[in-house]
Amino acid sequence: MHLDREHCVRAVQSKDARFDGWFFTAVLTTRIYCRPSCPVVPPKPQNMTFYPSAAACQQAGFRACKRCRPDTSPGSPEWNQRADLVARAMRLIADGVVDREGVPGLAARLGYSPRQVERQLLAELGAGPLALARAQRAQTARLLIETTPLPMAEIAFAAGFSSIRTFNDTVREVFALSPSELRARRPRSARHAPGALTLRLPFRAPLNPDNLFGHLAATAVPGVEEWRDGAYRRTLRLPYGHGIAALAPQPDHIACRLTLSDLRDLPVAISRCRRMLDLDADPVAVDGRLRMDPFLAPLVDKAPGRRVPRTVDEAEFAVRAVLGQQVSTAAARTHAARLVTAHGTPVDDPEGGLTHLFPSPEALADVPPDSLAMPRSRRTTFTTLVGRLADGTIQLGVESDWAEARAKLLALPGFGPWTVDVIAMRALGDPDAFLPTDLGIRRAAQELGLPGTPAALTARAAAWRPWRAYAVQYLWATDSHPINFLPV
Question: Which intervals of the chain form a coiled coil (predicted)?
């Protein structure tokens, strides 16, 4: 961990919520583990020990605190700001790969042996992939127990357990309560709509929802996304079926309503929604670095906590980035909507106006080029991209190596630095992706007194690393940001 014992003790004694998810406090006398901001009286320092993951606490024999519920902490920002083996493995585990494909499947996606993956995860997190996946299953089970009226047998298999006995034993071990006792603790006033799950997605404060939800709503593809009744809604293509997510910003959480065709997709849906909204970011660290530049400091002070709006489907975003090259946002949405209507998978949405899943690369690979209403050069770019995505030559999932993905995208016809960097920023999740050639960035930079040429701006932005993607959000938030023009 990046924190030493002294820093951890101070964070616990001050109940600092900024460190929730960064590490967990295990109390030797009670055998309970907590988040740093637990509201109970802090234990004596000599009775504290610290672990980098909830799975490591559970593996060491500690139970989750019933007051602070450490299993519901925001995720560690480490896994979204790195592209090494451990970070990629953690993103895949959160996406449910271990439950679906086992440890060999996880290792195969990463290009390492199972033994290498196990060794590196144990060294950094104190727990292997099976223990980390087990901790996630326990959290999913608790969520289903407390938010649905489903029978326990259905919850067990929906959460990914192989048997009801394993489900019962794990819940008792992790929470020191049986599944029925957990259900009895939920508020009696809780109401459950058939087929829908309502939950709260935590984040580290501050969070400024303006650019986050504003950008998603402004670029929404009709039929796939919409803004309705104060919530951003969209369809989700998931491993076992499909779903619809409705996400609304609240002062201390994101209200999330999920409608899933298969409950086994719950942990994956939550993970992808969190990733799209960048909820595991550390805004204190990001804003602290950007404030060091006197030209950016006023923008950060005016609206701290900006996030990078990302995506729930990396391949979808890459296709939409190509559709948006050199056209207005409205035109890009029109192009995408035509593809959705013609080639997307229809879905039912009784609560709104969503009609389709965005077409998969395999479906788009069969689209006749002549049917695309775009210049010949961009048709070539489009067909080449979807072909590479469909045959697996280019992979843009959470396991992607950022440098390798960038190199493969740059080798495609019609892909310039802007397209590659915007995909790196919003699809791959690179927090240091930068767009020095973007017209809105250059105009904002000149207005602020920063260098206006791409080369000079890139040199100046070296001081903003590794958070240049967040600097882009602050610059785009100025009045100079022309959201209606997307370059190549």
Answer: none
